[in-house]
Amino acid sequence: MLIRGIGSLIFMYERRSVMAIFPERVTKLWKEWEIRVLVLISLFLQIVLILLGNRRKYILRNRIRVILWLAYLGADWIAAVCIGVLSSSLGDDCENDSQKTKKIIWAFWAPFLLLHLGGPDTITAYAMEDNELWVRHFLGLLVQFGGAFYIFLLAWRGMPLNILAIPIFVAGLIKYGERTWALRSASSSHFRDAMRRRPDPGLNYAKIMGEYTLQKNQGFNASLRSVIEPSTRVNCLDPDAPILQVGYDLFNTFKRLFADLILTFQDREKSQSFFHNTTWQKAFAVIEVELGFMYDVLYTKACVSYSSRWGQILRFVSLSFTVFTFVAFLLIDRHEHSIIDLIITFLLLVGAIVLEIYAIVVLLSSDWTMLWLSKHGMASCFCRLPILQPADRRWSNSMAQYNLLGLCLKEKPIKCLGPLQRLPGIDGMLEEYRLRQDKGILHRFSYFYEMLEEHSYKSYVTVSDDLKGLIFQQLKDKSNRAKGRSNANAIYKQLCANRGDLVLKEKYNCYINLGWSMEEDFDQSILLWHIATDLLYYLDDQDQNSSSGRSPDCKATSKLVSDYMLYLLVMRPFMLPDGIGKTRFQDSCAEAIQFLQDNNAEIKGRTDACQKLLRVNTEVSPLEEKGDKSMSVLFDAARLAKSLQSMETDGDNWSNGKKWEMMCDVWVEMMCYAASQCGWKEHAQQLRRGGELLTHVWLLMAHFGISEHFKISQGHARSTVVVT
C-alpha cells in the first residue's frame, strides 16, 4: 500500500510529460475530467468487489476470478492515484481563491476514497499472501489518510461542505482500520498466536525428585509410582443438533489445523462422537459449514463484523455518519457547484449508503447470523435471502476432471486456435520450439499454447453422492480400527500413510499381483492407475454390480476419481507429495501420441485406442527395453490393466463388479492419502477458488481422528513418592 502511494506520486509527474504529446484541447478536457473519471471508476470497482467477493467461494468460473483479481488490484491503485491527483490539482491552484472555491467539492470526495480503500466486507484478501502484508496496509492507511487530510486542509474555507467532510473522514478511517485489523488477524503468525494455549511446564519434576532423594538418603525404601491423570470428560456432540451449531463448535476446535497446531485426544473423541453416529449427508454438510467459516475468517472482515461487538458498533457509527452527511448535503446551499460535480457527489453518497446497507443485508443472511438465531431459538423467524447467500452453496460441490487419453486424441481443440490446430504437424513443431534454448517468439508461443491446451481439457462435474458415501464409509471403517486402542495414535498415523496398499492387502488380498503399482512414487502410481482405469472403462461394458451387493456405481465413481487425481497431478501438483509427476505425465503423453500416430488408420476413438494399447505384448518390462531416460508409464499401465483383467478370469470369486469395487476403494484410499499429505496452506488457498474436494476429505479424516495433528494422547502423568 505504501508502494502504491509512492507510485501515485510518480504517476503525477509522469502524466504531465505524457499529456504533453496530446493537443492542448485534449489536455484541457482530460484535466477537467480526470478526477471525476477516477472517482467514478473507484466507486464502480467497489461495487464489483462487494458483489463478487463472496461468490468466489462457490463459483468456479475463471472469469469471476479474473474480474475480481483486476478489481482488487485496481481498486487500491485507483483510489491512491486519485488522492495524489487531487492533492496535485488543489496545490497547483493554491494561489487562486476562485478556483479553490470551485474545487472544494472535489476535496469533499477525498474521504470517500478512504472509504473505498477500506474495501467491502466480502473481501479483504484476494489470496493468503495478502494477509501477510498487513503492516504494509497499515503504513498505507497512514500515508493515504495523510494525503486525504492534506487535501482537506488545502480546500478548507470554513464552508458547510468542508465541515461535512469530517464525518466521512471518520467513516473512512473506520473502514480502512477494519480492513487492516482483519488482515492482521488472518495473518499466519497472529492467527496461530490467537489459538496457542498457555505454556504448560508440567508437574514439578525437580520437587518430586528432591523428595525421592531425601527419602532414599534417610534410609527408606522409596520408589516412584506414576498415575495417569484422569481423562477430562469429553463433551460429546449431539448427532441430532442443528448442523450450524455442530459446524461452529467443531470449527472453533479444528481451525487449529489451518495454523498447523496440535490437537488433543479429547478433541478427537469429541469429533468422533458425532461423525461415528451420523450419516454421510450430515457429515459433509457440517464440513461445508466449517470451511465456510474458515473462508470468512481468512478472506473477509468476519473477525471484525461477525465476531466482535465493537465491529457492530463501528458499523453503526460508519453508517450513521454517512447517512447524516447525505441528509446534511441535501440541506446546504449547492448552487455554486456544477451539475456534473453534484451528480457525482450524490452518487458517492448514495453509493456509500447502499454498499453499507448491502453489507448489513449480507451479514444478516450469513451463516454467522443464522447460527446466532439458532442458538437463541429464533431461526424459524428469519429467512435468508437466497440471492445473497444460498444456503446450499457454501462451496462449488464440484471436482475437476482431466484425462490423458482425451488430451492425446485431441478431442477438445482450443476454441480460439481452432484453424491453427488443424494445420498438419503443428503440435510437433511447437514442441520442438518449446524445447529449444533460444527464447524466440515461437518458443514463448509454444508455452502459451501448452497452457491453453491444458486448460481446454479441464472440465468440472458435480461430486456424486456415491463418492461421498464411499469416502465417508471407508474413513469410518478405518477409524473404528484404532478407536479405543492404547496405541491409537500410532495406528492413526499408519492409516495416514496407506495409499491403496491397505485395500489390496487386507480387504481384497491381491497385493501379490498388484502391489508393484503401489511401491513406486505416488505420482507414478496415480498415472499407472489412471491409464489402467481408462483402458478398462472403455472396454468393459458389463454391469459392474452384477455379482456384488454394493449399490454405488463403482465403475463411474472410479472414473471420476481417476480423472480428478490426474487433474491434481497436472494442474495442482503443489497439493500432492513432491515428485516428478509432470515430467512423467508429459513423457507418457508423448509416447501415447507417438503410438496413436503410428496406428492412426485403425484408431477412431477412445475405445479403439484402448483396444490397440491392450494388444501390445507387455511380457517384458518396458523399463528393461527402453531404459530409464523416458519416464513414460504408458505400457506399464497396460500391464496393470491386463493384471486387473486376469483377476476376473483367473481369480476365485472375482467378478466384474468386484473388480470395479476394488478399483474404486483403491482410488478413494489414494485420494485420502493425497489429502493427508497436502499442507494446510494449500488447502486454505483452495477455499477462494470454489473449494476443493481434497480439502473436504482432509478435514473429514481429521474428524475421524486420522491425522498426524493429534499429539496429546493421555494428558499429564502424576508421580508420587511411595515409602515402604
Verbal overview:
The chain contains 35 helices and six strands. With 724 residues, the protein is mainly alpha-helical. The chain starts with a helix and ends with a strand.
List the helices and strands and how they pair.
Elements: H1 2-19, H2 24-52, H3 62-92, H4 97-102, H5 104-108, H6 110-118, H7 128-131, H8 134-154, H9 160-186, H10 188-195, H11 205-217, E1 222-228, H12 243-254, E2 263-264, H13 265-275, H14 280-299, H15 302-305, H16 309-331, H17 339-364, H18 367-375, E3 398-401, H19 404-408, H20 418-421, H21 426-435, H22 441-456, E4 459-462, H23 465-482, H24 488-497, H25 501-507, H26 511-514, H27 522-539, H28 554-571, H29 581-598, H30 606-614, H31 622-626, H32 634-650, H33 656-677, H34 680-686, H35 693-703, E5 710-712, E6 717-723
Parallel strand pairs: 2-5
Antiparallel strand pairs: 1-6, 3-4
Helix pairs in contact: 1-3, 1-8, 2-3, 2-17, 3-6, 3-8, 6-8, 6-9, 8-9, 9-16, 12-14, 14-23, 16-17, 21-22, 23-24, 23-33, 25-33, 27-28, 27-30, 27-32, 28-33, 33-35
